[in-house]
Amino acid sequence: MLSYNKTLGNDHSLEVMAGQEITSNVNYSSYNYSPQYDKVHRIVGFPQVPQGTDMSHSPSLWLGGTGKYESKMSSFFCQCHLFLC
């Protein structure tokens, strides 16, 4: 923050203040979807896939993932006053 004061002549004064603020925030998240639910035991799970199954074309992206959210903010301000004495 910067501040400036100046007297102009015998009956005027000037005050100026200026500054800035910069913030940054990063959040990470993850989620999981379980396609099977056992109501009796109240547990979730995934179906057993037979050995040798080609999983390269399975919709595994539907079952979960991660995320990253980044937020940045910058603000500036200036205040000026002229006083007549």
Characterise this structure:
- The mean pLDDT is 87.
- This protein has strands at 2-8, 12-32, 36-38, 43-45, 64-84.
- It has a three-stranded antiparallel beta sheet, with no helix packed on it. It has a two-stranded antiparallel ribbon with strand order 3-4.
- The protein is mainly β and 85 residues long.
- Strand 1 (2-8) and strand 2 (12-32) form a beta hairpin.
- It has no helices and five strands.
Task: Put the structure in a nutshell.
This protein has no helices and five strands.
- Estimated structural class: mainly beta
Strand content: over 45%
Number of strands: 5
Number of helices: 0
Query: In angstroms, what is the radius of gyration?
Result: 31 Å
Unreliable stretches covering 5 or more consecutive residues: none
Helix content: under 10%
> Looking across the biggest beta sheet, what order are the strands in?
1-2-5
Distance between termini?
27 Å
SSE layout and pairing:
Layout: E1 2-8, E2 12-32, E3 36-38, E4 43-45, E5 64-84
Features:
mainly beta, two-stranded antiparallel ribbon, 0% helix
